[in-house]
Every structure is written in structure tokens, then in C-alpha cells.
């Protein structure tokens, strides 16, 4: 058997095992009856990435780099996930690399802690990781998960509102235990800081926001619940939304919405768009396909602006300074 054939077989085995680990990770995190699902997800998704990254290294013609140097008569050992990340994503600030490193940290800590709740920031981290895996599998190997396994929409399911998991809540801290509560508080604070430093990159963290209302008009809903034929269990059906309802504000109207709370102008919105790549985030921005159509913003975008300013009064000034820095670097 030729060396090229052996490399191909090894690469394919790594990809196969990686996809299996990924699918099992999603099945585990989405099975809300399992109490140990968060820790299990972290272990499985890290394994999926490690195998995929090693396949990428082999695909680049560098099979020897997936092994540490052999010592004496010991068998060859493959490199760790951390070393795989350094090789495939040499840029320390690559959003995908930072996302995986944060989950790897949670995996390592979960050996010592029992983490029974998923704070919102961790859910957003997990969701970006799930989407990022599929993206890189396709970019590196031209493969889609739908060709291998029915993993659905790659959505992370949680059995409580993430916003209700306030780590300052004493009852929740008692359930978690002091060590787990302190770790998660510090961990989530780091995630928020990193998210800002990466300019809100969706490759690092994907915001999850649902607004649920009871209405008799199906067209007003983002999600509808219906009984199946013959009284079958309730199904969830997604309904295409009218952009005039989901993203009702033009730039001028965004400014009108926040005028009483924020002293900003159109240039501030332009800077925020550029720094945080708002136009790449469909939950915040919609652009019609008709030439000349104005951009439209959602209520979620307006709320996000207000929230960011409440957290940091210099939020808009920092965005303007970053845009100036981008211009000086070009």
C-alpha cells in the first residue's frame, strides 16, 4: 500500500469518527433529560474538532505533524487539540480558534465540577461552535453533514430561558455549588469581554433571541405550535416572516427609537455596522433584493444598542475610534 493511499485512508477515518462525535455531541446536548449533558457535550465536541483538525493537517500534506516526536521505544502519540488549533489557526485571535479554546477550557473544568445549568453566554458559544464545525467541514473537505448524518438544523436546545440563569441569584448558586458558580461567573465574564474584542464575530458566539407571544394570527408569529392530524403531539413549524414586521426600522427610525436614551447620529450607526459586522447578522439587519432598497433593522438591534451603551458608556466612542484605526491600518 502506497504512502498516499495510507494517508487518504487515515484522513477518511478521522473525518468519519469526527462526524460521529459531532452528531453524538448534538444528540447529547439536545436531550434535556440527561443531567450530565453539558459536560458530555464538551468532551464530544472537542473530540470531534481534534479529529477534524488532524484530518485537515493530513489533507495539507503534513501527516508527520499530527504526531509528537517519538521517544525511545514508545509508540507514536498524536498531538493534542490545543496543538492542532495552533497549527491550523496560527492567528491567536482567530474567532473559530478562540471559540474552541473556550469550550476546551470548559471541558477541562467539567472534570472537577458538576455544571447543571447553561448560562446564556455558554449557549451562544455552543451554537457558534456547532455552526462553525459544519462550515469548516464543508470548506476543508467539500462535505456537508446532510450527506452523512441527519443532524437537523444544528440548533442547541435548552430547557430553560438562558436569561433566567442569573449567576448572581443565590438560589441558583446554591444549586450549582460555590466552586461551579464562581467558575461560571468568571468564565462568562471572559466570554463577554472576548466577544467585544472580536467585534461581535458570529464565529465566536451567536446570539439567541426568541420573542414568544400568543396570537390568533399565524402571520404575526415567528414560530407556530399546532396539533398534528388525529391529535398527534404538538409540532413546531417555522413561518417565513415579513421583513416589514421583523425588521421595521430604517436607519433614521433606529435613531428616532433611541433618541430619548442615547445621543448618537447616523455616523455612529455606520461605525457600529462596520466594527460589529451588523449587516452580516440577520437577526439585526435585513437588505431587500430589489436594487436601491434601504437597509432595515430589527427591534433586537435597537435593544442591543441600548444594552451595549448601558454596559459601557464609551461604547459608541470606542466604535468610532476603531473605525479610525481601521482606516489608518489600510
Q: Name the helix and strand elements from N-terminus to C-terminus, one letter apiece.
A: HHHHHHHEEHHHEEHH
Class by SSE composition: mainly alpha
Can you list the strand order of the major beta sheet?
1-2
Main beta sheet, described?
Answer: 2 strands, antiparallel
The number of helical segments is 12
Computed over alpha carbons, the radius of gyration is 23 Å
Brief rundown of the structure:
The protein is 53% helix and 6% strand. The chain has 12 helices and 4 strands, in the order H-H-H-H-H-H-H-E-E-H-H-H-E-E-H-H.
How would you portray this structure in words?
The protein is mainly α. It has 12 helices and 4 strands, in the order H-H-H-H-H-H-H-E-E-H-H-H-E-E-H-H. The chain has helices at residues 3-29, 37-59, 81-88, 95-110, 120-141, 170-176, 178-197, 243-246, 251-258, 266-276, 299-311, 315-329; strands at 223-228, 232-238, 285-287, 295-297. The relative contact order is 0.08.
Amino acid at each position: 500500500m502506497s504512502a498516499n493511499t495510507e494517508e487518504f485512508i487515515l484522513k477518511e477515518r478521522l473525518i468519519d469518527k469526527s462526524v460521529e462525535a459531532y452528531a453524538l455531541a448534538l444528540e447529547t446536548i439536545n436531550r434535556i433529560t440527561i443531567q450530565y449533558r453539558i459536560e458530555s457535550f464538551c468532551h464530544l465536541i472537542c473530540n470531534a474538532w481534534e479529529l477534524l483538525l488532524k484530518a485537515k493537517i493530513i489533507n495539507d500534506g503534513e501527516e508527520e505533524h499530527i504526531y509528537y516526536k517519538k521517544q525511545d521505544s514508545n509508540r507514536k502519540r498524536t498531538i493534542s487539540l490545543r496543538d492542532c488549533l495552533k497549527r491550523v489557526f496560527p492567528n491567536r485571535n482567530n474567532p473559530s480558534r478562540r471559540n474552541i479554546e473556550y469550550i476546551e477550557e470548559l471541558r477541562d473544568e467539567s472534570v472537577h465540577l458538576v455544571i447543571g445549568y447553561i448560562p446564556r453566554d455558554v449557549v451562544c458559544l455552543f451554537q457558534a461552535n456547532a455552526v462553525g464545525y459544519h462550515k469548516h467541514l464543508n470548506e476543508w473537505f467539500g462535505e456537508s453533514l446532510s450527506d452523512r448524518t441527519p443532524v437537523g438544523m444544528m440548533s442547541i436546545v435548552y430547557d430553560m430561558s438562558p436569561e433566567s440563569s442569573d449567576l448572581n441569584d443565590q438560589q441558583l448558586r446554591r444549586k450549582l455549588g460555590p466552586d461551579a458558580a464562581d467558575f461560571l461567573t468568571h468564565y462568562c465574564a471572559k466570554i463577554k469581554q472576548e466577544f467585544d474584542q472580536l467585534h461581535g464575530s458570529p464565529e465566536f458566539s451567536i446570539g439567541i433571541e426568541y420573542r414568544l407571544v400568543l396570537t390568533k394570527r399565524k402571520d404575526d408569529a415567528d414560530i407556530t405550535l399546532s396539533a398534528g392530524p388525529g391529535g398527534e403531539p404538538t409540532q413546531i413549524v417555522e413561518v417565513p416572516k415579513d421583513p416589514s414586521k421583523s425588521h421595521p426600522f430604517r436607519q433614521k427610525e433606529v435613531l428616532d427609537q433611541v433618541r430619548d436614551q442615547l445621543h448618537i447620529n447616523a455616523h455612529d450607526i455606520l461605525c457600529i455596522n462596520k466594527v460589529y459586522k451588523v449587516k452580516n447578522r440577520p437577526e439585526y439587519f435585513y437588505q431587500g433584493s430589489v436594487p436601491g432598497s434601504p437597509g432595515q433593522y430589527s427591534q433586537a438591534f435597537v435593544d442591543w444598542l441600548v444594552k451595549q451603551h448601558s454596559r459601557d458608556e464609551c461604547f459608541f466612542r470606542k466604535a468610532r475610534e476603531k473605525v479610525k484605526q481601521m482606516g489608518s491600518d489600510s
